[in-house]
UniProtKB/TrEMBL annotation:
InterPro entries: TRAP-delta. TRAP proteins are part of a complex whose function is to bind calcium to the ER membrane and thereby regulate the retention of ER resident proteins. Keywords: Disulfide bond, Endoplasmic reticulum, Isopeptide bond, Membrane, Signal, Transmembrane, Transmembrane helix, Ubl conjugation. The lineage of its organism: Eukaryota, Metazoa, Spiralia, Lophotrochozoa, Mollusca. It is a single-pass type I membrane protein. Residues 1-22 form the signal peptide. One of its GO terms (cellular component) is endoplasmic reticulum membrane. It is found in: Endoplasmic reticulum membrane. Belongs to the TRAP-delta family. Heterotetramer of TRAP-alpha, TRAP-beta, TRAP-delta and TRAP-gamma. This is Translocon-associated protein subunit delta.
Amino acid sequence: MTAIFKALLTAFLVLLPVSISGDTCLAPQVTSQTYTTPEAVVSFDTVLIVEFSLACKNNLKNINLYADVAGRTLPATKTGEPNKYQGIWSGPLIQSEFVAAMTAIIVWWMAYTQRGKLLA
C-alpha cells in the first residue's frame, strides 16, 4: 500500500509543475491607442484609457494580462473581440502629500497671524 502511495505522490509531484505552468506569448506584437481626460485642468481625477490588441506567434488567445501602474498591479479587461484588451485607470491630479503639506502651512499661517493679533 505504501509503495502505491509513494508512486502516486511521485507522479503527482512530477506532473504538478507541468499542469500548472502557463503558456508564454512568443514574439508578441502589440498595437495600442491611448486616451486621457481632455479637461485635466479642471478635473480632480485624471483618467487614462488604453485599448490594445495582442498577437502571439504561437496563436495564444484570451490571455490574462496585468499592468503595473505606479507600483500597483491592475488587471486589463478583455473586450468582446479576441485578443483585444482595455485598461482604464484613474488617479488624482494633485498628490495627497501636496494637499497635506499645503493644509499644514495654511493652518500654521492662520495660527501665527491670530497669535500676532492677540499679542498686539
